[in-house]
Design brief:
Layout (H helix, E strand, L loop, with lengths): L4 E7 L15 H5 L7 H17 L4 E4 L7 H6 L6 H11 L1 H8 L10 E4 L9 E5 L12 H11 L6 E3 L17 E5 L6 E7 L19 H10 L7 E5 L2 H5 L9 E4 L2 E5 L6 H11 L5 E5 L6 H7 L5 E4 L5 E6 L6 H12 L5 E7 L2 H4 L9 E6 L1 H5 L9 H14 L12 H18 L12
Helix pairs in contact: 2-14, 4-5, 14-15
Length: 447
């Protein structure tokens, strides 16, 4: 297929961005639990990254946040009365449920879905499956609205195929594209899909001891079947359990791939040699592995800086750019590795761009967490619904929108403020007009 580019759809940070420490196994999330957050700053940091990459020539899209607080969720759990009464009851009786209902975790759109481009699918359509995210209470609230958002954007049934999330059971725990990497010669060429799982729900492989592995092999296999991928197009690999116990809750915290390049830490896979051998066997293009040894970057430093949770982007001249969080620049071992091993190595990575996404990083999400990668041809991009492809005009409109609706700071006690509900709904109602997406939220649909 000609004219194919990878579009990175970044998630807009929602108005209830807060530090609740909800994600088990996410070291940064737990470390910053209970601190005051800055929703306006968080949203502007994300928008600045989107604008800068768009101006640099990379195709950039945007996905809206979820409706939060999720009052429907709280009402289903028995909290009754007015908005203020529901929030007050939840705050007094079950504050953990209130925090879950207010989570802005949909900003990390790497978990929104798994995507197969049309060049790989038997029916020639782009296939999308929203992740069920059943491993986390705060995240399992997302799939219904995520599916509605994706259907509004990828609306042309002749070009896009939508699948229901997998059954929300531990056996099919699915975390989306955070555990999926497509490797290929170029975005328009056929690719091989690397699915990384942490445990086998129906098998006997030993898992991590400290934290629960979020992705199952059974879920990865089911996604591949949904999308019509054959054995020759897929490689399944188990994530190293010691990495999970160190805080590598998704594979994109320890490895990132683009084109034929796989940048990974030596502790990324339980069987490194077998994983590389399978990729080499199935890829039509020679694999270019860029291995970072533990002696250069420890697992702790990898998790603290999110070196591998960076965006690896293709340039027209065949080179690649690595977009890293600012924390990488301030860690001597990581910065030295970037200069001496990655940039100076025999691979296409020729540039490092540093981006400040501190508000996201403090909740455990770097540049790669913030984006969902979708390879699209010219006709597929033209068929997208809404106004979701970033340019300066859309950036400026969204910056103005954030300024009108977002609070500068949000403390844990503010989550029970009824005014936060009014502010959030007003913001989302205006946002759907800016993005031209229609009634995607429950409150807009009478729910």
């Amino acid at each position: 297929m000609t004219g194919v580019v990878e579009v990175n759809f970044d998630g807009l940070v929602g108005p209830t961005h807060n530090y609740a420490g909800l994600a088990a196994g996410n070291v940064a999330s737990r470390r910053h639990a209970g601190r005051v957050s800055h929703p306006r700053e968080a949203a502007l940091q994300g928008l600045e990254k989107m604008r800068d990459l768009s101006r640099a020539g990379y195709a950039q899209g945007v996905l809206p946040p979820q409706q939060r607080p999720d009052l429907g969720f709280l009402r289903r759990l028995g909290f009754t009365g007015s908005v203020g009464e529901v929030l007050s009851q939840a705050d007094r009786q079950a504050p953990a449920l209130l925090r879950a209902a207010c989570s802005a975790s949909s900003m990390w759109t790497a978990n929104a879905a798994t995507v197969t481009p049309s060049v790989d699918a038997p029916d020639g359509r782009v296939h999308l499956t929203p992740a069920n995210l059943q491993s986390g209470l705060h995240r399992c609230l997302e799939p219904v609205t995520t599916g509605r958002i994706l259907q509004a954007i990828f609306a042309d049934a002749e070009r896009f195929a939508h699948h229901a999330p997998l059954p929300a059971t531990p056996a099919f725990a699915d975390e989306g594209a955070a555990n999926h990497t497509r490797l290929c010669a170029e975005h328009g060429a056929p690719g091989v899909h690397l699915y990384v799982y942490g445990r086998e729900a129906l098998g006997q492989a030993p898992g991590p001891r400290r934290f629960t592995a979020r992705q199952t092999r059974e879920a990865s296999e089911a996604i591949a079947r949904q999308h019509g991928l054959g054995e020759a197009q897929t490689v399944l690999a188990r994530q190293h359990p010691e990495a999970i116990d160190a805080g590598v809750f998704h594979n994109d915290v320890i490895a990132v791939g683009n084109g034929p390049v796989l940048l990974y830490h030596e502790w990324a896979f339980a069987d490194e040699d077998a994983t590389l051998a399978a990729l080499r066997e199935k890829m039509p293009e020679p694999l270019i592995p860029v291995r970072v040894p533990a002696e250069a970057v420890s697992l702790d430093d990898a998790v603290a800086t999110y070196l591998f949770n960076s965006q690896l982007l293709s340039n027209p001249d065949g080179s690649m750019t690595l977009v890293v969080p600012g924390e990488c620049e301030h860690n001597e071992a990581v910065w030295r590795t970037l200069q001496d091993l990655i940039l100076a190595g025999h691979n296409p990575i020729g540039e490092v761009r540093v981006k400040d996404v501190k508000q996201s990083m403090q909740n455990g999400g770097g540049p790669a967490c913030l984006r969902l990668r979708v390879a699209l041809g010219e006709a597929e991009r033209a068929a997208l619904g809404g106004r979701v492809l970033m340019d300066d005009a859309l950036h400026d409109a969204l910056v103005g929108w954030v300024g009108r609706h977002y609070r500068d700071r949000l403390a844990p006690e503010d989550l029970a403020d009824p005014l936060l509900v009014d502010e959030s709904l007003a913001a989302l109602d205006e946002l759907t007009g800016i993005l031209q997406l229609g009634a995607i939220y429950p409150f807009q649909r009478g729910a």
